[in-house]
UniProtKB/TrEMBL annotation:
This is Gfd2/YDR514C-like C-terminal domain-containing protein. Residues 40-218 form the Gfd2/YDR514C-like C-terminal domain. Signal peptide: none annotated. One of its GO terms (cellular component) is nucleus. InterPro entries: Gfd2/YDR514C-like, Gfd2/YDR514C-like_C. It comes from Karstenula rhodostoma CBS 690.94.
Length: 289
């Protein structure tokens, strides 16, 4: 499994040259999720992004030896973002509450700012001091067939499938099936999280969803590593093996509490009524006129 090999700092699943394996180990994992209007014509409302840099964990000497209970040593290095498109912030979408983002700070951006930010993520230099070495590869994860999201990416003007640095497009449903956690590749993220006894909070918010997809994908890919023990030879998820000391829900709760850097794009405040960046709609002087 490609994701398992990446997380455990192994070589490409099908082998490869020394140079290819070096590139593979330098890859960045990026999870994408989005919210669109439910009525036609569909408009992109928000974008959820979660990134994981395997090298950041390797610096602590943990990547090859100990993932921690429910992969908390890996998950603590996941950076999540929730970008809301200013032009469409007033439109209803599929999210129960677009304001209920639990893993960081939501920011309001323009469409161009979204595209530029994604382009920057997909254009990370291998070495800041040696730009001639090119860019780091990207492994992109989505929930559902990654090639079935074309309409949203066409509207945005950024398609991860077509980016030169993308080396793999992964589906979290397929990852779960390959780990033998499910029998088919058509399951909702709530169901996958439930197998690890994780109760998601506002999973319809695409910012939260990006994190939950990342969590489910990592736990599935590392299932044997995290849960197998003499008492649990079938690697049933739970408090087993190196995950015996705490619940997966506790790890997720800790992720919600830890400080996360604010995305270097957009504004934290936006008023859809007067388009001010100094207050929200409910604080707008025009709201009370």
């Amino acid at each position: 499994m490609l994701l398992q090999n990446y997380l455990q700092a192994k070589n490409l699943p099908l082998g490869g040259t020394v140079e290819l394996n070096k590139l593979f180990k330098s890859a960045v994992l990026v999870t994408l999720c989005y919210d669109r209007t439910t009525a036609s014509p569909n408009k992109l409302l928000a974008l959820g992004i979660a990134t994981f840099d395997r090298k950041s964990v390797n610096k602590e000497g943990l990547i090859d030896t100990f993932a921690g209970p429910h992969a908390e040593n890996y998950l603590s290095h996941v950076w999540s973002m929730h970008l809301r498109q200013r032009e469409h912030v007033h439109l209803p979408g599929s999210s129960d509450d677009p304001n209920a983002y639990h893993f960081g700070t939501s920011v309001f951006t323009t469409k161009d700012e979204m595209v530029n930010f994604l382009t920057d993520i997909w254009s990370q230099p291998m070495d800041e001091e040696n730009p001639e070495l090119g860019y780091r590869p990207i492994i992109c994860v989505q929930h559902g067939n990654p090639y079935g999201h074309g309409a949203a990416w066409q509207e945005l003007g950024f398609d991860p499938v077509k980016m030169d640095t993308t080396i793999a497009m992964l589906d979290s449903q397929v990852i779960a099936e390959q780990s033998k956690l499910t029998r088919n590749s058509y399951v909702e993220i709530d169901y996958l999280l439930g197998q690890f006894k994780i109760q998601p909070s506002t999973p319809t918010n695409c910012g939260n969803a990006a994190i939950y997809i990342t969590i489910a994908s990592m736990l599935c890919a590392l299932r044997k590593h995290l849960y197998q023990s003499p008492q649990n030879p079938k690697s049933k998820p739970g408090e087993h093996g190196q995950s015996a000391s705490k619940t997966a829900q506790a790890v997720v709760n800790e992720m919600m509490k830890r400080p996360t850097p604010v995305p270097p794009v957009g504004t934290e405040v936006y008023c859809l009524r007067c388009r001010s960046y100094e207050h929200f709609f409910t604080e707008c002087p025009l709201y009370f006129d």
